[in-house]
Amino acid sequence: MNLTPKQLRILQLIRDSRIRHGYSPTMQELADEIGVSKVTVFEHVEALIKKGALIRDPNKARSLAIASGIAVPDESRPLRFPLVGKIAAGLPIEKMEDRDELDLLDIVGPRPGRPGAMFALRVQGESMRDEGILDGDYILVERTDVASNGDRVVALLPNGETTLKTFYREADRIRLQPANPDFQPIYVKECKIQGIVRSVLRKY
Q1: Which of 38, 86, 168, 191 is the most buried (most CB within 10 A)?
Q2: Distance between CA atoms of 16 and 82, rounded to whole angstroms?
Q3: What is the pLDDT along the chain (204 residues), one digit of tens a residue?
Q4: Rounded alpha-carbon distances, angstroms, from residue 102 to 111, 119, 138, 197
Q5: Eight-class DSSP state of 78
Q6: Backbone phi, psi, residue 133, to 5°
Q7: Can you give the pTM of this predicted structure?
């Protein structure tokens, strides 16, 4: 697809905003970011819609989204996820096909149908050690408020603290299970699921 540098930058900004916040920037925010007028941004956006790179719900604010099948390159950092905070992993505080090439997005990216719904956290603590999630690792999390038994989740507890544990719903409570015998499970009546762990990254 033939895009101008400003059109590519607009796509990158929309992608990053939807990853970080779950919605697109306003026209004014785009204009401020790339240093042009709001009218110019509107013209670029309309051109991107006509090219099939963007989609928009005319009846909904902040609804710009990257069209399905459109890959937005980032020449300096092709796989970049927003680092939105730290997550405690101790006490609470938040078969392969043969291929000619390896596309990291297939491994660490969001599941089909959920483009952009990802964020990153840095792990603190050793409570998920036996699951291979170590202190200092980065986890890539799919933003969702629904979890199934056995999912590794980022859970917001009733006291406002956030933790990384494995989720189990029992008869009258939820068990948030660590993966280290030195830590005890956390039992709560309810908690808010903020996301499910999809990938773990480690830098050596």
Answers
A1: 191
A2: 8
A3: 678 888 888 998 888 888 777 788 999 999 998 899 999 999 999 999 999 989 988 888 888 888 887 777 655 455 555 656 677 777 665 443 444 455 566 666 666 555 447 788 999 999 999 999 999 999 988 888 889 999 999 999 988 889 999 999 999 999 999 999 999 999 999 999 998 998 898 888
A4: 17, 22, 21, 21
A5: S
A6: -105, 110
A7: 0.54
Q: What gap in Å lies between CA 157 and CA 92, rounded to an integer?
A: 8
- Which positions ≥6 away from 12 have C-beta within 8 Å? 72, 74
Place of tokens 């830098």: 203
Please, what's the b/e burial string for 93-116 (b: 16 or more CB within 10 A of its CB; e: otherwise)?
A: bbeeeeeeeeeeeeebbbeeeebb
What are 103's two structure tokens? 């596309």
Q: Looking at the domain that runs over 5-66, which CATH code has it been given? A: 1.10.10.10
Class of domain 83-201: mainly beta
The sign of the dihedral angle between the CA atoms of 103, 76, 133, 169 is negative
Q: List the catalytic residues.
A: 127, 165
Chain position carrying tokens 């110019």: 40
- Residue spans of the domains in the chain: they are 5-66, 83-201
